[in-house]
Amino acid sequence: KAGVTQTPRYLIKTRGQQVTLSCSPISGHRSVSWYQQTPGQGLQFLFEYFSETQRNKGNFPGRFSGRQFSNSRSEMNVSTLELGDSALYLCASSEGATNTGELFFGEGSRLTVL
Amino acid sequence: SQKIEQNSEALNIQEGKTATLTCNYTNYSPAYLQWYRQDPGRGPVFLLLIRENEKEKRKERLKVTFDTTLKQSLFHITASQPADSATYLCALQMDTGRRALTFGSGTRLQVQP
């Protein structure tokens, strides 16, 4: 079974631009979560989608948004980029039938904002 | 305030010894606690999950304990190997209704041959 796939793996943007990151979960997984990882703040929860609905949301500004498609693939978008948005953005999938259990993480999209 | 604390300094041990990593938390009441391993430049990999009503969980060379009174989890790797060198993250899930995990900052383990 293929793992969680995130694209792009690396990208560089400038302040004020926007960015869209993509995540393809493991086949059959209906829950997709997004996390931001920085050296200072560690791993922080952004949001979780299940069956195209946002189920949970972390404490991030409205510039961070996401969506999930009917095939469970997910995208997250960050608008009006700031220097502090530079981070590794990780997507994780799970079967989603319950709210517990392990998360399967992708390798991440490393965003650098200049 | 709410905090999750893991040893910020790296843990260096000799091959064959038992590594013990600590996860302490304050002002949280997690229903579940998970441990993940993360290698440089890679995403975290799930290792073990323990529920609030469980004291101990084992999987091969790994053992996790969970003390809700002390608000602490211990993660043990027995017969450690250089391949166990990585950063280990603990993560709390507050209740079954919320899928979001709250992660500690991680402890870097270095196993010397």
What is the radius of gyration of chain A computed over CA atoms, rounded to a whole number of angstroms? Answer: 13 Å
Tell me how many strands of chain A there are: 11
Q: Would you tell me the structural class of the helices and strands of chain B?
A: mainly beta
Could you name the ranges of chain B where pLDDT drops below 50 across 5 or more consecutive residues? none
Count of alpha/pi helices of chain B: 0
Beta-strand percent range of chain A? over 45%
Shape of chain A: globular
User: Using DSSP, what is the number of strands of chain B?
Assistant: 11
**What level of helicity do the residues of chain A show?**
under 10%
Beta-strand residue percentage of chain B:
over 45%
* Overall pLDDT metric of chain A: 94
Structural class of chain A: mainly beta
Uncertain segments of chain A are: none
Most extensive interface, chain pair and sizes: A-B, 27 and 25 residues
Assembly type of the chains comes to heterodimer
Classify the helix fraction of chain B into a percent range: under 10%
Helices and strands of chain A, in N-to-C order?
A: EEEEEEEEEEE
The sequence of SSEs of chain B as H and E is EEEEEEEEEEE
Could you describe the largest sheet of chain A, including whether it forms a barrel?
7 strands, mixed
